[in-house]
Amino acid sequence: MFYYLYDEYTLFYLSWIAPEKSALLNGVEKDHWIKRQSEASWKSWSGFAFEALCFKHIKELKEHLRIGSVSTKAGYWKLSDNGKKVIEIDLVIDRADQCANLCEIKFSNDLFVISKAYSNELRAKKLAFQEQNKKALFTTMITPHGVRENSAYFGCVDHQLTLDALF
């Protein structure tokens, strides 16, 4: 069974307030939170919080993809091998029109850049999903500020959505 925490404040509290409660009550250094933003744990939390935000706005994402009137099911998808996670897709919008949007949700403070390696990973995810689901597939990137359209982007991304699609 898989549980996903959707409440951004609870996620923030469990990740940042509870573990440091005594230090916070005793007073922290002046630029404590700014220093924390460069840590890997902050980046991980930012990614989970952004995913939670996207899951709360699936209706708006569908509207921006121009599939608002199509009946859909949406959720996380993973392929496991003997209990070991092999491939995961952040959000699949499985459509009644025999299509699916495979959404990769990536938080970034700037334009997200797709490397050649990540482009290959996106293709592998699409192939793995297609082997189990015979549908037309569309790879969709969801980022706060967009995706840089470089050579790795072309040929592997069909749509990109930004924060503007959520609000």
Features:
single chain, 167 residues, alpha/beta, 2 domains, 5 strands, 36% helix
3D structure, described in words:
The chain has 167 residues and is an alpha/beta fold. It has two domains: 45 residues, no CATH class; 105 residues, 3-Layer(aba) Sandwich (Trna Endonuclease, Chain: A, domain 1), CATH 3.40.1350. It is built from six helices and five strands. The chain has a five-stranded mixed β-sheet. The longest helix has 17 residues.
Reconstruct the topology from this structure.
Layout lengths: L7 H10 L3 H5 L6 H5 L3 H16 L2 H7 L7 E10 L2 E12 L3 E7 L10 H17 L3 E7 L16 E3 L6
Parallel strand pairs: 3-4, 4-5
Antiparallel strand pairs: 1-2, 2-3
Helix count, DSSP H or I runs of 4 or more residues:
6
- pLDDT averaged residue by residue: 89
CATH class of the largest domain: Alpha Beta
What ranges have pLDDT less than 50 throughout 5 or more consecutive residues?
none
Tell me about the biggest sheet?
A: 5 strands, mixed
Shape, per Cα inertia axes: globular
What is the total number of structural domains? 2
Tell me the CATH topology of the largest domain: Trna Endonuclease, Chain: A, domain 1
